[in-house]
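Sequence only, no structure available. Ideas?
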Amino acid sequence: MRLHAVDIAIIVLYLLSTIFIGLWYRKKARINKESYMLGGKSLPWYKLGLSDASDMFDISGTMWMVSLCFVYGMKSIWIPWLWPVFNQVFLMMYLSRWLRRSNATTGAEWLATRFGKTGPGVAGSHIIVIIFALLSCLAFMGYGFIGLGKFIEIFVPWDLIKGYIPFNVAPQYVPHVYGIIFTLFAMFYSILGGMHSIVMGDMIKYGIMTVACVWIGFIAVNHMHGNPLNVPNGWYSPFFGTHLNLNWANIITEVNAKIKSDGYSLFGLFFMMMTFKGFFAALAGPAPNYDMQKILSTRSPEEASKMSGFVNIILLPIRYTLIISLTVLGLLYFHQMNLKDDTGAIDFERILPAVINNFLPVGLVGLLLAGLLGAFMSTFSGTMNAAQAYIVNDIYLKYINPKAANRKIIIANYLVGIVVVAAGVMVGFSIKDINLALQWIVSALYGGYVISNVLKWHWWRFNATGFFWGMLTGIGTSMIFSLIIPPNELLNWIPLLFFLSLAGSVIGSYASPQTDMEVLKSFYANVRPWGFWEPVKQAVLADDPSFQPNKNFKINMFNVVIGTMAQCCLTILPMYLVLRQKMPLLCTVGILAVLMVILKKTWWNKLKDY
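Reply:
I predicted one. Tokens follow.
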């Protein structure tokens, strides 16, 4: 255990601040349902954007990305397209505005604006989206939970404290015990203060992480002085061909086994499958979790777009400064670190905590630990808030007690929060590996979600029955795939998963009557989507000849391409900076400047025109 008293004091001070935040915003959160779940839709876009970025700066994801950067170098910037990370660009350019125009509280409530409140399949569509939302929320909570436990275990070895614990814990469950302890802090402030306390906690955590990331960046640069990295040819290049062509045989032989187990050797094929899946996932819009809740919390559609754009700017440079800096220190001192797990195998996800524990000065260790604990707590609390919203708003208030008084709604939120946390912890106990859990979430679970949610925006004939069967087919197939297909091969089965989900969506839609035209007209006139809406457009124009249909498809797609390029530049810029790659850095800065000028003219200046 290498924690100094100063580091411990910083961590304790941060944990106490989360308790204070929960108590401070308790009264404000109790005003009404909207104040608790959405912050009263009064928070400015830059605060929500910073909060959303903090939620994405999770500890498990950061451990995973450091291990990727260590193994794949600059090519690692593409692997997070599995999520896909460029969905934020689609949201920024148009989808956030479309979603916010609904004035809904949750994704399930949004469905009423698209399919109506009554009619064939409406109840089924409502239930299936709640099931997916809860599945995804619990999966993310469990994924974050196990990452935190693995992280803390390195700093506080169980042998040091097991004598003070009145019960025995099997070695494989030690990370879970640590996870439970810090989960209780996240649960306390987020349940008491709702969205208000979540956003404030995220802002404090982001400030801590920014200071820590810049500090560790300087340390990595200093350690590299006179110590070149021993990496294979191609490690410094983000470009690739059909094969990965990274050979660690004479450097760190275990890395080649890692590449083989990940299944990324045929990198060109992997990239095509990942981009194919990612494009449709981005078209589907935000999944029903903390990202959607932050968009619905904004004050206007324009601010929703600004918020999504702000996420890229404040998240990527800071996060990748940390990732590349920890990677550099990990490469320089690999043979001085113990990265073996209980089985004796090297666990590359332990690089992040091992570097912090061995090579960072007093004070910075405390800041980084506090920030990463906050990263876990912000992701966990934001996801929990989304799950609470679905259960309370879309189950309790819709089916159990529609006329519940405000006091009962608040109590329901408290109770549901506790139950959701307990369920997330139980899911965490079943997760053994961060990478495999992530592969299942992004490839299987989210793969089943995609097609139905693309069609709901872009095809007028798609109805509630089609949504139900498309989602049910997709989720059911993804569950079956997860049982019979290794997690690192799930991506190869995405086309079949998409086809089955599409078949369920189309057959379900044509097997039942179309959505009531009045509902479609209201949705189309309010949201103003582009796509296959011609019959509805003509009906709206017949009622209101002055109505202006959305003709922004080309400019939206142009901005998506430019925005994705800018996002890549923001990702790789801090990596070139820390690695002191001068010419690539200058080229990246120049390209980014040109792209920002273009987006200022084609996106920012025209936000109100869209």
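DSSP finds 24 helices and no strands in the chain.
Hope that gets you unstuck.
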